[in-house]
Known about the structure:
- This protein is an alpha/beta fold.
- It has helices spanning 3-10, 14-21, 28-41, 47-54, 70-84, 99-111, 126-134, 156-169, 185-201, 218-231, 243-255, 289-308, and strands spanning 59-64, 89-94, 116-120, 139-142, 151-154, 175-179, 210-213, 237-240, 265-270, 283-287, 317-320, 322-325.
- The chain is built from twelve helices and twelve strands.
- Helix 7 (126-134) links the parallel strand 3 and strand 4.
- It is elongated, with a radius of gyration of 23 Å.
Amino acid sequence: MTIKDVASLAGVSPAAVSRYLNGGSLSEEKRQRIQETIEQTGYRPTVAAQMMRTGHQRQIGVLIPKIYSDAVVQVTEGITQYIQKYGYMSVLGVTHADEQKELEYLSIMEANRAAGIIVMGTGVTPRRIEAYKACGIPVVIAGQNISGIPCVYHDDFHAAQELTRRIIERGRKKLAYISVTDHDPQAGKERKRGVLSAYTEAGFAEKELLTAVADFSAESGYAAMQKLLERDTTMDAVLCATDAIAFGAMRALHEAGLEPGSDVSIAGIGDSWIDEYAMTPLTTARLFFKQSGEDAANMLLSTIDTIEKGEAVAARQICLDYEIIERGSI
């Protein structure tokens, strides 16, 4: 069975079958006919034939910082479900947020002729930016906004700003914020900037905001909250850069005899499945992680298609919206 045979049975041209196999643009009607024919015949192009035709394998490299994260799982699910529809498989690389490991994976996947790479960004450095631009295969970043590089990111600033405003509107005046490192521009700098924007516009001085830093985990949120309570027990609200941090902070509040939601308002950012099942359901800013994976995959496959047509590629940036989910914690 060859591409010509599939084309004849589907009533389309061999070029249309080739575009389908490469994730190229086609009418929905042609795509459906080709898909049905392939399913009926069991046709599978050989790896050698694919590489002769396109110069790459039907593999997408997906670089993630860790596995045990609800956000990472959702983004990865969005990517894999999308690319599978177009006959691609994912090759996973876990970087542990280590820059050198990320750069090594980029080189390995390029050398192995992956069709492209999606990087779940945890930091933006000159070395990373240089590597993304110099990579010989298309690269899309999920979770960071980098000028001149295709990326899909969240509106972290306005999500944090609106959460802070809602807490202040409930009469809370002594606020604390548990952030993550500023080495992460979106989760670190942008969310902190959003909190400070709402805090100062309400008439508070920036120096009045109690702050601590955590590392995305519940354990670090617990430790950061304990340190805040050692410094000041009069706070009446705590904002956290992630939901996981918020869960750790809630445990520390409970142990200190403070009730989240009544004694102290608390909120996170992300929206994990566990938020509504916690003893005190967590108010949060929902970020659309799965959609970010889908959009990043769509952007990458479109870029691959554009390159194969010999057309110029423009770097696009997509900023995703957010949704405030109010539960019982503020």
